[in-house]
Specification:
Elements: E1 15-17, H1 28-38, H2 51-70, E2 78-81, H3 84-94, E3 104-108, H4 117-121, E4 125-129, H5 139-145, E5 152-156, H6 168-177, E6 181-185, H7 187-190, H8 197-200, E7 204-208, E8 219-223, H9 225-230, E9 241-245, E10 248-251, H10 265-281, H11 283-302, E11 307-310, E12 318-323, H12 328-336, E13 344-346, E14 348-350, H13 355-361, E15 366-370, H14 377-394
Parallel strand pairs: 1-13, 3-4, 3-5, 5-6, 6-7
Antiparallel strand pairs: 2-8, 7-8, 9-10, 11-12, 12-15, 14-15
Helix pairs in contact: 1-10, 2-10
Length: about 400
C-alpha cells in the first residue's frame, strides 16, 4: 500500500489526508482517463452514427457493466445518477404508490441527511429506528417496529460518522417479512467492503463515484429489475423515451427511463477507471488495510484521557471522536495549520450531514478521521502529534 501514495497527486507536499469518507483523492490513472475522455476520445453517446460516437457509446456502456459488476449486479439493473443523493431521491419519488395510504419508510438515527430529506420531500411517513449502545442500527428494535404498513426500509450499509456496519441479510429478511423493500445507502461501503447484491438480499443500492476514487457528479442506483420496471420516470427529457408526441409519451425500459438528458460521459469514464484501479488492488486488501489503521488509531486515542470515541471497535474505515474542551472545528483548524515539521492534517469536523445522530450522541459535532487506500501509519502519527499540539494550545 505504501507505494500507492505516489499515485495520488493530491497528497503531495507533506499533507496527511484523513477525510476520505467525505471524498477520496484521485489516482493518476483516473485523472488520465478523464483527460482522454474530455480530449482525444470525446464524443456524445447513444446518438451519433459516426465512429467516435459509437466508440464512446461502447466505452460508456462498458462502464455501466463494470460498475454493476463491482457490486455483483448486471448492467441492465444499474442506473447512472449524479450521486447517491440523486439515487435516493429517485427511489423516494418513483417508488410505486401503495393505494390511498401514505407511503411509509423506516429510517435510523444514524442516517445521512441524503437518506432523510428525500423521503420528507416526497411525502413519505417516516419512522425512526434507534441504535444500540455501540452505535449500530438496532435490528431487534426494527423487528418490533416493522408491520405490513411499511413500504420501505432505507438505511446506511456503513455509517458515515460511526463506521458501524449493518447486518444487511438480517435487515433484508426483516423488511421482506412485512412486504417492504430495502434500500441501502452504500456510499461508505462500496469503496472498502466486498459487496454482492445476491448475498446481501437488498432491493436498491445507492453509491457514488467520488468516494470510490472516481470523479464527482456521478453515482449509481442498483435496483431489482422487477421493481425498476414498475417505477415511473421522475425526470423527463431526451434519451429516456420510447416515442414522443404532443398527445403523449411512452418511455424506455429501465435503466434508460431514469436517465433523462445527455449523461455525464466524462465522469462515467473516470468512474470506470476508478473501479479498475480498486479491483487491481483488491477490495479485500483495502478492507484489511483500513481495518488495521482503524485499530491503531482507536488504540492511540484510547490512551488519552481527554478523548471520547464514538462507534464500535470494528468500525469500517472511520474513527469519530471528541476532545475535551476543544470544539471539533478548532481542532480541525489547528491540525490544518502547518506544524513545525511542515506537516498538515486534514480531518472532517462538524455534524457530517447527520444532525439527528449528533443529537442522539449529545454533542454538537465530532472530529472524524477516515482512511483510504493511500493512508498509512504516518497519517496516524501526524494526527496524534496535532492533537497533542492542540492540547498544549488550549491548556
Amino acid at each position: 500500500m505504501a507505494a500507492l501514495r505516489d499515485q495520488f497527486p493530491g497528497l503531495a507536499g507533506g499533507w496527511h489526508y484523513l477525510d476520505t469518507a467525505a471524498t477520496a483523492q484521485k489516482p493518476q490513472a483516473v485523472i488520465d482517463a478523464t483527460v482522454r475522455a474530455m480530449g482525444a476520445d470525446y464524443a456524445t453517446v447513444h446518438r451519433g452514427v459516426y465512429a467516435r460516437s459509437a466508440e464512446m457509446t461502447l466505452a460508456y456502456e462498458a462502464v455501466r457493466a463494470k460498475v454493476a459488476g463491482l457490486i455483483g449486479g448486471a448492467g441492465d439493473e444499474l442506473v447512472f445518477t449524479r450521486g447517491a443523493t440523486e439515487a435516493i431521491n429517485l427511489v423516494a419519488r418513483s417508488f410505486p404508490a401503495c393505494g390511498e395510504k401514505p407511503r411509509r419508510v423506516l429510517l435510523s438515527q444514524l442516517e445521512h441527511h441524503s437518506n432523510i430529506v428525500p423521503w420528507q420531500l416526497a411525502g413519505w411517513q417516516i419512522d425512526v429506528c434507534p441504535l444500540t449502545a455501540d452505535g449500530r442500527i438496532d435490528l431487534d428494535a426494527a423487528e418490533a417496529m416493522l408491520t405490513p404498513d411499511f413500504d420501505m426500509v432505507a438505511v446506511a450499509h456503513v455509517s458515515n460518522v460511526l463506521g458501524s456496519l449493518l447486518d444487511v441479510p438480517r435487515a433484508a429478511a426483516l423488511a421482506h417479512k412485512v412486504g417492504a423493500s430495502l434500500l441501502l445507502d452504500g456510499c461508505q461501503a462500496a469503496a472498502r467492503l466486498p459487496v454482492d447484491m445476491t448475498a446481501l438480499g437488498c432491493d436498491f443500492y445507492a453509491f457514488s463515484a467520488h468516494k470510490l476514487y472516481g470523479p464527482t457528479g456521478i453515482g449509481a442506483l442498483w435496483g431489482k429489475p422487477g421493481l425498476l420496471a414498475a417505477m415511473p420516470p421522475w425526470q423527463g427529457g431526451g434519451a429516456m423515451i420510447d416515442k414522443v408526441s404532443f398527445a403523449g409519451t411512452t418511455f424506455a425500459l429501465p435503466p434508460g427511463r431514469f436517465e433523462a438528458g445527455t449523461p455525464a460521459i466524462i465522469e462515467a469514464i473516470g468512474f470506470g477507471a476508478a473501479i479498475e484501479f480498486v479491483e487491481g488492488i483488491g477490495i479485500e486488501a483495502i478492507q484489511a488495510h483500513e481495518a488495521r489503521l482503524v485499530g491503531q488509531l482507536r488504540a492511540a486515542l484510547q490512551m488519552r484521557n481527554d478523548i471520547t470515541l464514538f462507534g464500535p471497535e470494528d468500525a469500517a474505515g472511520i474513527v469519530s471522536f471528541a476532545m475535551d474542551g476543544v470544539h471539533p472545528h478548532d481542532l480541525g483548524t489547528i491540525l490544518d495549520e502547518q506544524a513545525p515539521d511542515g506537516t498538515r492534517v486534514a480531518i472532517r469536523a462538524g455534524h457530517h450531514c447527520a444532525q439527528p445522530l449528533m443529537e442522539h450522541l449529545g454533542v454538537p459535532a465530532t472530529a472524524r478521521a477516515s482512511f483510504g487506500i493511500y493512508s498509512d501509519e504516518s497519517d496516524i502519527a501526524a494526527l496524534i502529534a496535532g492533537i497533542e499540539r492542540t492540547r498544549r494550545i488550549f491548556g
